[in-house]
Amino acid sequence: MRRRLAAAALYALLLGGAVLTLAPLLWMLSVSLMPAGEATALPPRLLPSAPTLESYRALFTRLPLARAMLNSALLATAATLISLAFNALAGYAFAKLRFAGRDRLFRLLLAALVVPGQVGMLPLFLMLKQMGLVNTYLGVLIPGLASVFGIFLIRQYCLSIPQSVLDAARVDGAGELRIWWSIVLPLCRPILVTLAVFTFMGTWNDFLWPLIVLSDEDLHTLPVALASLLGEHAQDVELMMAGSVLTVLPVVALFALFQRQYIQGIVAGSVRG
Amino acid sequence: MRANPAWGFVAPALAAIGVFFCVPIAASLALSLTDFDLYAVADLGSLRFVGLRNYARIFADPTFWTALGNTAYFVALGAPLSVAASLGAALLLQSRLVRWKALFRTLYFLPVVTTLVAVAVVWRFLYHPRVGLLNRVLGVFGVPPLDWLGDPALAMPAIIVMSVWKNFGFNMVIFVAGLQAIPERLYEAARLDGAGPWQQFRHVTLPMLLPTTTFVLLMTLIGSFQLFAEPYVMTQGGPGDATRSLVLLLYEQGFRWWSLGQAAALAFVLFALLLALTLAARAAGLLQGGLAGERRP
Predict the structure, then answer these.
(1) DSSP label at residue A217
(2) Domain B19-283 has CATH 1.10.3720.10
(3) ipTM of the predicted structure?
(4) For A160-214, how does the pLDDT look when each residue is reduced to its tens digit (9 = 90+)?
(5) Is B231 in contact with B245 (CB distance < 8 Å)?
(6) d(CA B149, CA B152)
(7) Chain segment A226-250, per-residue pLDDT in tens
(8) What is the mean pLDDT of residues A127-134?
(9) What's the pLDDT at A270?
(10) Which regions in chain B score pLDDT beneath 70?
């Protein structure tokens, strides 16, 4: 009997938590489907009287959200591919190749994590301005070309690759790059997927840096476009909610697909204690 | 002698990190000692060395102290709340009496993957005094409508609640992993000694989870110091200066007023704060070895 009661209390807490967690997201979805003005009319409604895609249509036809979506997709894909290549090369080398000062260098990289990203932001902006990269896709991509977190994640995974496999390939006369491409990368597939999902979502969700680098509206990513939309359309609640749904939906879908890899990545990135 | 091929592997990443991360940090230090402003953006010739004057100006500026106070408020209240929510959720999910754990874990984790700017837009309306969801729910319980983001006393707590909602799932999965790593035999031994559920929690779970907790708390504290997008989208730092954070101030100094020298000095003040926090935690023995995964192979 006491066990039943305890279980009921646990479920009540869990369900309460789930309601609190989901309510803002479901409300966003519901309001985004309301006809214009319904969300701010009194008495307020929880659900649309007649669901409509009006706000979504407005975002795509009257407002530049389709373009922003394309920019976000393009930038997130490019950032993912580039950083996978850079980090997989370096992560493998830090785990399996020998070179002078390897471990000291790696520890130095980890120590660099202490420096918050905002510190170098201003000179980086000036640097990119000198190079003519402000207001370009490349300017957005540059700070994420390689990341200490990515190198770390790949290195830890590569440590478990048996040395004998690599040595056998060397005996067969395979070059180092060849070994990396056709032996190491296939073995690293799970961690590469994890890192890819992380990078894609991180780039998609990033706000501060694209806000600084991109002034041209045609290049805005979704978060930047959404924030600037808020400037003119703060009163159009349905419209803003539809914009939020469009921004959030792709990453939520991606998470649904790669949930296991994503959560493993978090745990692997914080294995201490 | 042939060059070691390993350098070819690390060179692209190291060059990228060196040129676009390390060099700007050093340059930032130099920048913080100059009067780099809008004129210097146009013509570098007008740049002057001003020593530590930018730092002196920051410490004499009441807005800086307000922003520091706001940030400290957010960190001191938000980070422990967020970690407590994470731990609570992880403990619930860990209970043997509960089924559909994976489903609940996914639901709780959902806010973490959402785009901060988008959910900040959503919460802005959630907090709307007249039609916002929150006041309507509270109204059912007879609470009069509150102007959450318009009242200087409520705006920061409102941002804290939103950010706990957004982030607790992240630390939750770390706690779940930590809980799963506690050997079952410890609980068995405790039960044999007659320990009830509370005593098991108090004398087995909590001590075993302590390293995870301190690590998670420190990382959350550091992350919280970088508060930016929530006030940028939800309050623009207002009402008054009630939610102006250090990074928001930095952004405004740098990219609205183009006082880059001043902003760079502010960035170093922020860095010094975080460094002090990390070193203090390490000195107190809370963070053996330092960073995530510095564990030797």
Answers:
(1) G
(2) yes
(3) 0.89
(4) 999 999 999 999 988 899 999 999 999 999 999 999 999 999 999 999 999 999 9
(5) yes
(6) 7
(7) 999 988 888 888 999 999 999 999 9
(8) 91
(9) 67
(10) 1-2, 286-297
**Integer Cα distance of B158 and B163 in angstroms:** 9
A 113-172: CB under 8 A from B: 113-127, 129, 142-143, 145-146, 148, 151-152, 156, 159
| Chain-chain contact of A243 with B117 (C-beta, under 8 angstroms) | no
Out of A7, A85, A207, whose CB is closest to B116?
A207
Judge contact between A105 and B285, C-beta under 8 A. no
- What CATH number labels A58-268? 1.10.3720.10
Hey, is the C-beta of B106 within 8 angstroms of any chain A C-beta?
A: yes
Dist CA A221 CA A78 (whole Å) = 13
The size of the A-B interface in CB pairs under 8 A is 299
B34 pairs with which residues across the strands?
Answer: B49
Enter the pTM of the model: 0.90
Residue window 43-82, chain A: list those with CB within 8 Å of chain B: 44
Q: Do residue A23 and residue B274 have CB atoms under 8 angstroms apart?
A: no
Encoded tokens for B57: 């100006």
Selecting from B14, B31, B131 the residue whose C-beta is nearest the C-beta of A90 gives B14
A208 and B228 within 8 Å at the Cβ level: the answer is yes
Residue B170 to residue A112, Cβ atoms within 8 A: no
Q: Check CB contact of B149 with chain A, cutoff 8 Å.
A: no
Question: Do the beta carbons of residue B111 and residue B169 sit within 8 Å?
Answer: yes
The Cα–Cα gap between A270 and B191 comes to: 31
Distance, in Å, from the CA atom of B233 to the CA atom of A30, rounded to the nearest integer, reads: 21
* d(C-alpha A184, C-alpha A166), whole Å: 8
DSSP class per residue in A58-78: HHHHTSTHHHHHHHHHHHHHH
Contact B264 A222 (CB under 8 A): no
A5 interfaces chain B, CB cutoff of 8 Å: no
What would the pLDDT profile of A40-76 be if each residue is shown by its tens digit?
887 778 888 888 898 999 899 888 899 999 999 999 9
* Nearest Cα to Cα of residue B58 among B284, B289, B242, B263: B263
Helices in chain B by DSSP H: which ranges? 6-17, 23-31, 38-42, 53-60, 62-94, 101-113, 116-126, 133-140, 152-180, 184-192, 197-200, 206-224, 229-234, 246-251, 260-283
pLDDT score at B2: 62
Task: Break chain B into its structural domains and give their ranges.
Answer: 19-283
User: Tell me, what's the pLDDT at B287?
Assistant: 59
Identify all chain B residues contacting A267, using CB atoms and an 8 Å cutoff.
173-174, 177
E strands present in A18-163: none
